Structures are given as structure tokens and as C-alpha cells.
Amino acid sequence: MEYTVKQLADLSGVSARTLRYYDQIDLLKPSYMTDKRYRIYKEEQVDRLQQILFFRSLDFSLTKIKQVMDSKNYSELEALEQQQKLLLIQKNHLDSLLTNIQKTIEHYKGEKIMTDSEKFAAFKENAIKDNEKKYGDEIRKNYGVETVYQANKKYRNLTKEQFTKMNNIEKQLIDDLNILSENPELDSELSQKIYLEHKEWLEYSWPNYSKKAHRELVQMYVNDGRFAKYYDDKAGKPVTELLKKVVEHFTE
Amino acid sequence: MEYTVKQLADLSGVSARTLRYYDQIDLLKPSYMTDKRYRIYKEEQVDRLQQILFFRSLDFSLTKIKQVMDSKNYSELEALEQQQKLLLIQKNHLDSLLTNIQKTIEHYKGEKIMTDSEKFAAFKENAIKDNEKKYGDEIRKNYGVETVYQANKKYRNLTKEQFTKMNNIEKQLIDDLNILSENPELDSELSQKIYLEHKEWLEYSWPNYSKKAHRELVQMYVNDGRFAKYYDDKAGKPVTELLKKVVEHFTE
DNA sequence: AATAAAGATTGACGCAACGTCAAGGTCAAG
DNA sequence: CTTGACCTTGACGTTGCGTCAATCTTTATT
Lengths: 252, 252
Known about the structure:
homodimer, about 250 residues, mainly alpha, Multidrug-efflux Transporter Regulator, Chain: A, Domain 2, 3 domains, two-stranded antiparallel ribbon, 2 strands, TipA-like_antibiotic-bd (chains A, B), DNA binding (chains A, B)
């Protein structure tokens, strides 16, 4: 059985353009070309396309699909699990967005509306002060914290003092991580200090601390690039992985 | 208070490029331009930017943000509820993907899993062979592999064949690096071979290969003594720096 | 057989939201 | 007067195609 582009398109539900594109990126090549350069597909290609569409339906990138399908020894299972991780991260992200948007909507409806400028007012105060002192870095830090502040509703009940204290602990944490990274010894006092600092920091926003949750959290840090980036940027070098190791060391 | 592009960028945490882009699409115009066409922002724009970033954090498109903010009679509440619906749809979609992928994974697992201990055994088999052939320092080499093996959970779902293949690729890579280091010519076939080997090796554990990430990784190798030591020990001489140069050469 | 309709081909631009150079002006500091 | 930091405007790259446009080839109808 042979198929032209349109026939295969109709058969599979994708567009002809898609098939030409897949040919172009070497994801799905026709069985052969006629002398007039028409693409002809056969059963083998139909099968392959089905596979492709299966992975695509799971939101695999075309690049990844190619890797998985073209490499004999690439484990499909592993690819699936990687993809699952990615999707879980996306889901977490979506969930937090939904929480935020729900809160915002409630605010509006409750007519206890904080104007947006009010929401940012406290932060701006800091920004302006800092700016006048020309400590550019500090501004960025505060802004970073502000982002977290928005994302995490739990911060909302902190007093100003607590908030400041959290910031200081975090700062110290980053510094210590920086130092430790030069001589990464998990069994050191510095290492333990880091663990305790991170724990203390967490306890400002966690209802009840558990080692298990702590371990899972740092695992998330590493898996989710946004967390890693947050810490790595602050430290000026990659320290997230180190933090993870430290925490895992003391939570066993 | 007046801000240049950089200052506002630092203050807000977005890039200068983003500000220029927002100007370009008329989302955030500067307060005025100097005679030299420098953008100058004032408080009003800072406020507006904060509004923008707030909506952006909820995954509003920039187009939508513009609509909401520029239209006097466009209800923010309505927009929020609309966005909430969109996010819920996405969430449902994600949930169904996750269900599907979970099912598929279970299906796979029902059939062919290599347990960690089995993999470890396979690895040791090789190690012993090598040990018989080569001698003491081979043992150290294999301990190195063991460390990496433990450190990277991603390896855990590789099949026996894949695991072996990865090891072989890495071995070949080291050998090639050794050869190249005697006559370091970045524009050679050997050099390219090394690049491709390292890439292939990475793709066993990376969800998405990109040249950018590849460059960053080898930069890491050099910066982080632990990585460098790993390769240098295996090669018997310092080759990490060379690997970095090779990769950078082919990822430009 | 002539003609029209259907389907095929290869470009090439467009989209979203910027990242990342490149080439070249401007400004404050030393 | 020279750095060096910061500013400007292009313009290409990214992902997965949709959507013309211009130009054959094949098939169907008259």
C-alpha cells in the first residue's frame, strides 16, 4: 500500500505541511520519491508516524522523539519517566498559578481590594531606598524575594521583622554555600550550618518541618531549573546541587 | 526619580532586552527620550511595569495584558476569571497526559526492568574484565564510574545494553581525547568525533540536547574541580580543558 | 484531446517573547 | 584623551507548524 502526502495526512489526521516538515527535519522520511519528486510513504512509515504521534501526544519535543526512536538503545522507559518529571514540574507550576489567581480573584470580589500599587508599595520603598544608596545588587535581591513573596502565599503573614530575618538567613546561606563549594566536605561544621540555615529558613513558611519533605524539596530544586537558577544566580555559581547533597546528608 | 534601561532592568529583575521589546510592542513606553534617544523611565512606568509583571506571572500573554491595562472599561476581574479558565483547561490537559504516561510506564515496567543490582552486576563484570586485562589503576577508574553512577539517578532506568554502551562511548571518548591531546587540532575529524561522542553520551541522560546547554556543561566541568578530576584521572592526564575547547568549537 | 480541478512541489513569512550577538554612538571617570 | 560601562538599532535563532504564493503534475470532466 502506497500513500501520497495527502493520503497519509488524511489517514493520520496531521496536515500535509506537517509531513513535509517531518521530512525536512529527518523525523519521517518517505519510502521513496517519484521521478517528479512526489513523496511516497509505505506501511513502515505509517507505523513510524503512529509512534511519533504517540510521543507527540505526550508533549515530547520532536527532537526528543527523534532521539528516542533513532537510537536503538535509548530506553523508551527512561524517556517516558523524564517526560513525566517535566510534566509534573509543569503541573506544580500551574497549580501555583491557579492558587495565586484564585486568591487574587477573591481579593477583588471581597472588595477588600488592594490596589496593585499597594501590593508593591512595601517593596518599592525598599527599592528606592536601596537605589539611593546605589546598592544595585541589593535591589535585585529584594526583587527576587518579592517574586517568591508573590508566589508563596504563606509569606503573607510574616511581620516585617520576620521577613527581614528570612532575607538575612538566606543571604548567609548563600555565602556559606559559596564557601563550602570551594572545598565540598559534607561532614564539616560548615556543611551542618548550611543545613540548619536552610531548615530555619523553611520553618518560616512551613507549618511543620519534616526531614522527608526537606529532602523532597531540594530534589525539586535540582529538577526544576527555576529554583536552581534562583540559587545559582544569587551565588554567582552553581550551588544548588551542593545544597541538595548537604541536605540529603543531614536528613538521612 | 528617573531610570535608564539598565537601572529599571536591575530594579525590576527583567532584562534590558525585555524593556526594549515592551517599548517596541507599545506595552511599556518610556516617560521620554533624551536627545540622544536614550529611554528614560519614571515612577509611573515603574508602577506600570509592576502591573505588567504581575499579570505576566499569571501567564497572561503580553497582548492580553495590554488589552486589560489599556482598556478603561475592561474589567480586571473578568480577565482574571477568563485566565483562570484557560489555566484550568491546561491543567486538565496536563492531568490527562500524566495519566497516560503513567499507564504507559507501568506497561513498560511490567516487562523489562533491569534492577539496580543487575546493572551494578553488569558493570562489575566489565570492571573485572578490565581489571584482569589492565591492572590497578583500572580499579580506580571503575570506582570513578561507580561514583557517577550513584550520583546520577537518571542512569537507573537504562537497560543493561544502554548502560554498557554508555560506558563504551565514554571510554572511547577518553581514548580519543588522549590522542587528540598529543596534537590538539580543533578543526580535525578526531576533534569532531570527540564532540559527537560527548553529545551522544549526554543524550542518554538529557531530556533535550542543546548546544547552549552543552557549552555551559563543559564550562562547568572546568570550573568544578570534581568533574575535571574525574576526566583527568581517567585519561591519566589533563584533558578536561581540551574537551571544553572541542565542545566550544563545535557548538558555536 | 482539451480543460479544469485537485494535488504536488519548493520557498518564505508569521507567530510569542524574548536571548544573543554585532556594529557603532554616548557618558562619566581617571 | 582613553577606557569602560552603558546606550542605540538591527537582525537572526528558537518551536512546530499555518498560511500564502508561484509553479508543476496528475486526475477528472467535458
